[in-house]
Amino acid sequence: MADTTLGASAPARGVKSPGRLRRRYSMLTRRDKIVLAIMVAIPTLIEMVLIWIPTVLSVFLSFVRWNGLAFSDIHANGVANYTYVFRDYPDFWPALQHNVLWLVFLAVIATPIGLLLAILLDQNIRGTRIYQSIFFAPVMLSLVLIGVIWQLFYSQNNGLLNFLLGTSGTPRAIDWFGDSKINIWAALVAATWRHAGYVMILYLAGLKGVDPSLREAASLDGANAIQTFFRVVLPVMRPINIVIVVITIIESLRAFDIVYIINRGTNGLELISVLVIKFLVGEGQVIGVGSTLAVILLVVSLVPIVSYLSRTFKKDA
Amino acid sequence: MTSDKLSVLGDISKSQLNRRALLSGGVGVAAISMLAACSPGGSTPASGSKTTTFGSGASDDVPKRAYAAVIEAFQKKSGDKVKTNTVAHNDFQNNINTYLQGSPDDSFTWFAGYRMRYYAGKGLAAPIDDVWDKIGGNFSAGLAKASTGDDGKKYFVPNYNYPWGFFYRKSVWAAKGYTVPAKFDELITLSKKMLADGLVPIAFADKDGWPAMGTFDYINMRTNGYKFHMDLTAHKESWDQKKVKDVFDNWKQLLPYQSPNALGLTWQEGAQLLGEGKAGMYLLGSFVTQQFTDATVLADIDFFPFPEIAMEGTTAVEAPIDGLMLSKKGGSNSAAKAFLQFLGTPAGQEAYFAVDKSNLMTAKGADTSGYSPFNKKLADVIGNAKSISQFFDRDALPAMANNVMIPALQGFLKDGTIDTANLEAQAKALYAAQ
């Protein structure tokens, strides 16, 4: 996207000050230009084919009803798919709420935990590498393994958690996955377990990049550790913070895997991404409705990402 | 693989079928068939040939070997050659749209019900009335009805089926002096007694969402009759009417006696409750017996049909049927038809049953000496049934079953309420898309 804005603004600027344009271009040899053109064109083309064309098609399909067989079966459907989703489909609004809850939970709990871990592990304590590996491991584990691990914790009759609570096998045993008031929190704990490790690694890299003389200067000025961190270190890590914010938003919008392995995203674990899959893949396929949900997810994702990125880049420029 | 691809490409240019598809369906259909042509083993020579292809979703070890045994018996008998393409069964089921539009095998594994009639109606399956002229005598009226498309032609050859009903442990019942309930009221009285005795009266497990559909199907068939159930699942009847509300009112009387934490249990865990004698009975398909590896427990399991409520006694039975269909292309292949015909005979089904004993043969006259007394009882229930339903997710639009009914029934299990007006609104939107 950055490519497009740059490309679009270059000629406009050129019209205003032709002298500057000539000077800038004269610095590039013919070969440079060709290389640049190829480097921009190929990613753009890939982006077009894999992202923009399917996006446009999804928007189109969200306004039709189609059984997925012959093209002659496509019928215009107006906004009927949207009224179905917004008015008649009882899972939609809970799913949206769950996505918002997911975002808030990751932003307020999981990300700070990751930051805290990073700060602790940055203190040159003994065996820091081992701790780092342990906390980062969840990010690398495969989906199936994660499912097995949390099943071991949460299983109602055989799980570790109910065993520790002493309720295992009794009627008081907490139904972590089956009780729709509880299971979203169980899933969020599992999501935090992964997200915190991810955030930790990014912040660790960021902390290593902070110039030590800044800390020295701060302590000379009489700042305590907390003041130093929030007034000096965190602002210096601004590029990392941007990445973290974007990652947190994206992770909460595309959250899918954990709820899907728990119970395929039903019974209190509905998320928009799960609903999209339900209506687009497999036997329950209803292309119009699935595309509608996908378009809604797209719009929801675009709002925070675009507003945040545009604000950030404007400030940087 | 390469030669396969080449021959398929040749086929596309040669065959009338594909040329017509090109003209009528436009570029897309052609593109789809070209894409699908890249999958291995798509094509067969034209009619009158002695070879045929068979697409199988029976990917588990036992059913896979069972179909291999059928094919071996068929090849020995007819001299024709059958080439099998086995696909993991979830993938097979999920990709059936693309598969049937692309370059499908001549015959393929499928099941009776709405989805059979749907593809038949879309012209993606070939009618096999000529096969049924020869094998029709082997099947009961209920099975013949289940093999018929909306246009009155036959499209399906049943292989095996299995009934749904209540399973219980004889020893537990004998110790407490319980008797099999014939009426719904008796079922409730019995449940009350079991609850007082410290049992979970009716094991119930709905974490996966689909098992609850079996209870819905039975209460609906017993309350409103088989025809209403079929019309409702095909959405020829509205969901927003008193008859549907009656079903849930009846079910509500059972709710206090079902496992309280059903939404966290898988059907295997439900079976465990029954096997350990903690639950009095369990409404499920007869595949529940697969869970009882202990031979003494297995021998202790018995079955009774869902009790009578208001209509038709207990003559309607839920017994999903698996079998074979012909693709549009397979309709012109005589060996494929002979293969289906063979599976519709006692000899063919015996070959299958010899390997996979967990289901019941559907053809009359098949040698049932391999049946246990328990199997015989199950077979009698199906044999005496006037009408056979296929389970909700086979009788209804899959989107209705998976995306609407699962959450709706789970909600009902939680608080005993259901919004039938909303069910109707959703059904209207989803069925219209087909």
Description:
The complex is a heterodimer of chains A (317) and B (434). With 317 residues, chain A is an all-alpha fold. Chain A is built from 15 helices and two strands. Chain A has helices spanning 2-16, 18-26, 30-61, 80-88, 92-121, 128-140, 143-154, 160-165, 183-208, 212-220, 225-236, 238-253, 257-263, 272-280, 287-316; strands at residues 64-65, 75-76. Chain A has a two-stranded antiparallel ribbon. Chain A is flat, with a radius of gyration of 25 Å. Chain A starts with a helix and ends with a helix. Chain B is an alpha/beta fold and 434 residues long. Chain B has two domains: 44-160 and 322-375, 3-Layer(aba) Sandwich (D-Maltodextrin-Binding Protein, domain 2); 164-318 and 397-432, Periplasmic binding protein-like II (D-Maltodextrin-Binding Protein, domain 2). Helices cover 50% and strands 13% of the residues of chain B. Chain B has helices at 2-14, 16-37, 61-78, 89-94, 96-101, 114-121, 129-135, 141-146, 170-176, 184-196, 211-224, 226-233, 242-254, 267-275, 295-299, 334-343, 346-353, 373-383, 392-395, 398-415, 420-432, and strands spanning 51-56, 81-86, 107-111, 156-161, 164-169, 200-203, 279-285, 301-304, 316-318, 321-326, 360-361, 387-389. Chain B has a six-stranded mixed β-sheet. In chain B, strands 6-7-5-8 form a four-stranded mixed β-sheet. In chain B, helix 1 (2-14) runs antiparallel to helix 2 and helix 11 (211-224) crosses helix 13 (242-254). The interface between A and B is large, with 42 and 42 residues.
Write the layout of secondary structure elements.
The complex is a heterodimer of chains A (317) and B (434).
Chain A: H1 2-16, H2 18-26, H3 30-61, E1 64-65, E2 75-76, H4 80-88, H5 92-121, H6 128-140, H7 143-154, H8 160-165, H9 183-208, H10 212-220, H11 225-236, H12 238-253, H13 257-263, H14 272-280, H15 287-316
Antiparallel strand pairs in A: 1-2
Helix pairs in contact in A: 1-2, 3-15, 4-15, 5-9, 5-12, 6-9, 7-13, 9-12, 10-11, 12-15, 14-15
Chain B: H1 2-14, H2 16-37, E1 51-56, H3 61-78, E2 81-86, H4 89-94, H5 96-101, E3 107-111, H6 114-121, H7 129-135, H8 141-146, E4 156-161, E5 164-169, H9 170-176, H10 184-196, E6 200-203, H11 211-224, H12 226-233, H13 242-254, H14 267-275, E7 279-285, H15 295-299, E8 301-304, E9 316-318, E10 321-326, H16 334-343, H17 346-353, E11 360-361, H18 373-383, E12 387-389, H19 392-395, H20 398-415, H21 420-432
Parallel strand pairs in B: 1-2, 1-3, 6-7, 9-12
Antiparallel strand pairs in B: 3-10, 4-10, 4-11, 5-7, 5-8
